[in-house]
Amino acid sequence: RHPVPVLGKLSLSEAFGHASFLLAGTAFLDPDILNLRVLSVMAGSATLVFTYFHPVGHPLWIPFGWNALFILINSSHIYRILAERAEADTLPPQAVFLWRSVFAAHGIDLVDFAKLFRAGTWVTLRKGATLQEEGQPSNSVFLIVRGGADIFFEGKNTHALSNHQFIGDFGLGSGIIVREPMTGIARVVTNQQTTCLVWRRQQLHDLIEAKPELRAGIQAAISADIMRKLQVARGEYGEYGWVRWVR
Question: Which of 30, 64, 115, 170 could make a disulfide contact with 51, Cβ separation 3.0–4.6 Å?
C-alpha cells in the first residue's frame, strides 16, 4: 500500500479500481460518442486489473468476464466509428462543398453525409434533359449540385431552380417518406448542363429509416429549400398568387 492524497493508503489494485470508476464517470460526461467508447474501454481495462488482482487475494471472475465482454463490444464500435470517419475523409472536394453548403447547418455531420452521398448517384445531364414529367410517376429525388432547371406548370414556364435546390422532394420536408413513385406536379427540364445528386425513393427511405438523425437533417434542409422557393414565388406572383404555384 502507498499513501495517496485524499484517498489514503491504497494498493496498486485498489488504485486501478478507483481509476475504473473515475474513467466511467468521465465517459458519461463526454457528448462525443467516440470519446465515450474509448473512455469506457479504458475504464473496463482498469476494472480487469482490479478484479484480477483483487485485495481479497483471488480474482473476481464474474465482473472480470463481463467487463471483458463490454470491452470487446466497445472496441468493435470504436473500430466502426473510425472506419466511417476514414471513409468520410475520402469524399471528393465537390461532395464536401455540397455538404457544407446544404446539410452541415442542419445537423448532418460529414460521416452521415457520406452515407447519404454514397446512397445516391452523381450524374451530369445535358441541357434539355427532363428530370420530371407533370402528372407522371417519378421515383427519383434530385439535388442540383451545379447548373439549373426550368419548371413548367400546365405548359407555362413558371420559374427556374438553381444550385442546391431539390426536385421531387414532395412529402420529405414534412417528414413523410414514401417508397413508391410520386406523381410529378410539374415538368422539370434542365436549362444548361447540370450536375445532380440523385436518389431512388426506396434507397432514401431505407437510409433515413435506419438513421433518425439523418431524417431530421434532410427534413430541415428540404424545408429550408421550400421556403426559398416560396420567397421566389411570392416575388413573381404577389402576396397570394404563389398558392397555385406550389400546389
Answer: 64
